[in-house]
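question for whoever is on the cluster today: can someone run the full assembly for these? two chains, 750 residues total. i dont have access anymore since they changed the login thing
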Amino acid sequence: MEKLIALLVAAPLLGAAVLLCGGRLLDRVGHWLGTLLAAASFAVAVVLFTDMLGKDAEDRSLHQHLFRWIPVEGFQADVAFQLDQLSMTFVLLITSVGTLIHLYSVGYMEHDERRRRFFGYLNLFLAAMLLLVLADNYLLLYVGWEGVGLASYLLIGFWQHKPSAATAAKKAFLVNRVGDMGLSIAIMLMFTTFGTFAFGPVLGAAEETGEGKLTAIGLMLLLAACGKSAQVPLQSWLGDAMEGPTPVSALIHAATMVTAGVYLIVRSGEIFNAAPDAQLAVTVVGAVTLLFGAIVGCAKDDIKKALAGSTMSQIGYMILAAGLGPIGYVFAIMHLVTHGFFKAGLFLGAGSVMHGMNDEVDMRKYGGLRKYMPVTFVTFGLGYLAIIGFPGLSGFFSKDKIIEAAFAKGGAEGWILGSVALLGAAITAYYMTRVMLLTFFGEERWRHRATASPEEPGAEPAAETRGGPGGHAEPHPHESPASMTIPMVLLAVGSVFAGGFFSIGDRFVHWLEPVTHHDHGDSPLSAATVTGATVVVLVVGVTLAWFQYGRRPVPVVAPRGSLLTRAARRDLLQDDFNHVVLVRGGEHLTRSLVYVDHTLVDGVVNGTAASVGGLSGRLRKLQNGYARSYAVSMFGGVAVLIAATLLMRAV
Amino acid sequence: MNPVNYLYLAALLFAIGATGVLIRRNMIVVFMCIELMLNACNLAFVAFSRLHGNLDGQIIAFFTMVVAAAEVVVGLAIIVSLFRSRHSASVDDASLMKL
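^ ran it for u. tokens below:
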């Protein structure tokens, strides 16, 4: 069975190699080849999963040692895989959602002439992501980590003819590099502390190591997680990453890659357990991001950016849970999986809406689309109910557990974290209801004003004949092809049932317990109280949004809004902050360094040259060509020599 | 007679020669002053030979004479050709070797 693990990575890697090197011959079949290989990887994952289920909980971990990568005396880097329950969960999520999104992309990218390359990149991403979660040491994990960063860069900038996409890709790559620096420093610290960076020895020895070192490693790992998972303060890239094609946003920037930070923290759980300060930092980052993302999500009119804010916020929940220690790890992963389903579904729904609306992304120009896109409406709606935590759907179970775990942290800390999580749930309900109402309900704001007829049923055929006065064509909302709707339906099924399925008899907890361990903690509030509170804030959030966007007509042009709204539209001034502090700061730094270089360094160099030149100019005057003056210097020299000799002798 | 007096004489001759090299401008005179210095040296060598009671100084004096004769040949040739080209025998006129 161990032999199959490498196959998981190899299949999409092969796909990437063939598609990217294959040339135009593969243009016709490339997308199906890519999808097939992703599906093959999923099939292997299912085989491994059923095999794993047949074993005892303690013996489920599989290892495969492929080869020695860098064998130096004390530095042994192996290419070896470890498949335990945690990795298995990720592998199943990545390959299943990945395959569905490959399938979706076949339809979505149909008119793009570079579709083959797109699938090559998607396969490359899958391979790197699988490598990341399957690695059995931090160095190999780092390879996967960089690989997904590369794939993300390539895919965000896939439409590189748009300057905004090219800039967004560069921004994502650069911001990620800051996090990557954290991971590389963490690995170096591990090597100096433990002499190795394989999971087993490092995590096994974490208990006996000094807290200071573990805190340093933990904080560096947190920095890495912040970069990859778009957490404050390295969150600024995720909103711009929405420049990429929508399937990319769904797969990479919602379901899988951005959760790599959560994986890293949960995987390094033993380090964080022994370093409470680092753990506290993790919860703070999670709590701050959870509110930050939610507030940003409330203000964005771009449907994908609203969802991006939501992603940031939901990952904030996961990081928060991961920072809670053994009481939270399992729920972080559980929320990660359910989030993977419903957020991918929501993004695919958004893609489907854009597909039918001439790639319009401004929600204020949507409205009333439920009649024209029934399948999208239903699947998006189910994803919506799941993410706001409607009782009985996936998000309800996983988010509720996280809120409960936050309260169970105990003390003032627990109350603060729990309240933040509850507040976040209310804001989630608000902004998702807003997205839902703006897109699928209300009047049809996409019609041109002069001919607008809000209450005309079945207006679709008529809409085609009406030419708009605005000059450009009015969109004809229509349902997307089956290759796009089937993945949406499957993901909707996942968003509805996954949470409940995991919660029956706490089976998800039991499944992950051997890897992450689990601790119930003692909550000051009973589970029922927390659930009740969650439902109450959910209702409050939805009602608020309905009062604001459901009852009143929505203006097509965004109103100016309050100070907070305007700040949130600008991503809560994160770019301005980065610009003022980092860009300006960097400019000032370089300017002063240039000044120092010009005055001090160049001064010394030029001064030396000038003084040597001046001195030699004066010395040159001695060479006057008169033989007699040379004779004088010779006599003088001899006289000095003789005098010196005599003097030495006298002494 | 005390041989040390010869050394005094040699020093005096050498000083005269050196002064002549430094202050006279006529090449021929400078040349003769150089010869004077060489011969002062010869005198000193011979005097030392006498003082120490061996022949080393005498031998070196012969060598010096040979070198001086060769030097006269080369030096006079240079002076003559310089005089031919510049119509002057002043050492200060031949000051081209400068930057």
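summary bc i know u wont read the tokens: Chain B has a mean pLDDT of 90. Residues 25-86 of chain B form a domain with the Helix Hairpins fold (CATH 1.10.287.3510).
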